Amino acid sequence: MFDVGFAELLLLSLVGLLVLGPERLPRVARTLGGVARKARASWFSLRNSIEAELRAEELKEPLKHFENEIKSTVDDFKSTVDDVKSTVDDVKSEVNSLKDLNPAAGGKAGETDEADDRK
Question: Where are the domains of the chain?
Answer without folding.
Answer: 11-118
